[in-house]
Specification:
This protein is of the alpha+beta class. The protein has helices at 47-68, 114-124, 126-131, and strands spanning 10-15, 18-22, 31-33, 77-87, 93-104, 137-142, 148-150. Strand 6 (137-142) and strand 7 form a beta hairpin.
Length: 159
C-alpha cells in the first residue's frame, strides 16, 4: 500500500483502561480513549463510540463532497449515530448495528445535485462501506425541517 493510502496511529496506555491515541498528522491533538464504568472512568470515548463517530463523520463528509465536489458548501450537516451492542452466541459483547441519521441544514437540502448525491454518497464512504461487511448500518437523510429525503434501504420507509 502506498504512503498516500496508509496511516499510522500509536496508542499508549496511560492508566487502567485509558489510552492516548497519537495521530500521524502534525497539529492534531492526542485523543483519550477509555472504557465505561466499571472497567474505566469514561474520560474519553470507547472503541464502539469511536467507531460510531467515524462512520457518522465519513458519511457526512462523503455527502458534503458529493454536493460540493471540493470545498464544503454553506450550510451544515448534523449526524446522529445510535449504536446497538449485544451478545453473540458465545456471550461476547459486539456492535450489532449502527443507525445514522444525517440532517442537512441551510441550502444543502436545496442543492440541484441532492437527488444524485443521495443515490451515491454511501458507496463512496470508505469507512461505512468497509464496516458494513460485518456490521449492519442504516442511513437516513433529512432536511432542516425534518422531512425524510432518503430512507434507510432496509426500513421499508418512503420519502
Amino acid at each position: 500500500m502506498s504512503a498516500e493510502h496508509s496511516f499510522t496511529l500509536t496508542l499508549e496506555q496511560t492508566r487502567g483502561y485509558q489510552f492516548e491515541v497519537h495521530f500521524d498528522w502534525d497539529g492534531v491533538p492526542d485523543l483519550v480513549l477509555d472504557e465505561p464504568a466499571p472497567l474505566g472512568h469514561e474520560t474519553g470515548p470507547n472503541a464502539a463510540r469511536l467507531l460510531g463517530a467515524a462512520v457518522g463523520n465519513c458519511l457526512s463528509a462523503s455527502l458534503l463532497f458529493c454536493l460540493a465536489k471540493q470545498e464544503a458548501p454553506p450550510g451544515a450537516v448534523r449526524a446522529e449515530v445510535q449504536g446497538r451492542l449485544g451478545r453473540n452466541a458465545q456471550g461476547r459483547l459486539r456492535v450489532q448495528g449502527l443507525s445514522v441519521e444525517l440532517r442537512l441544514g441551510g441550502p444543502l437540502g436545496e442543492s440541484p445535485k441532492l437527488a444524485r448525491c443521495l443515490d451515491l454518497f454511501e458507496d463512496f464512504c470508505v469507512l461505512s462501506a468497509s464496516v458494513r461487511q460485518g456490521v449492519p448500518i442504516e442511513v437516513r437523510v433529512r432536511d432542516a425541517a425534518g422531512t425524510l429525503l432518503k430512507p434507510s434501504e432496509d426500513s421499508g420507509e418512503s420519502p
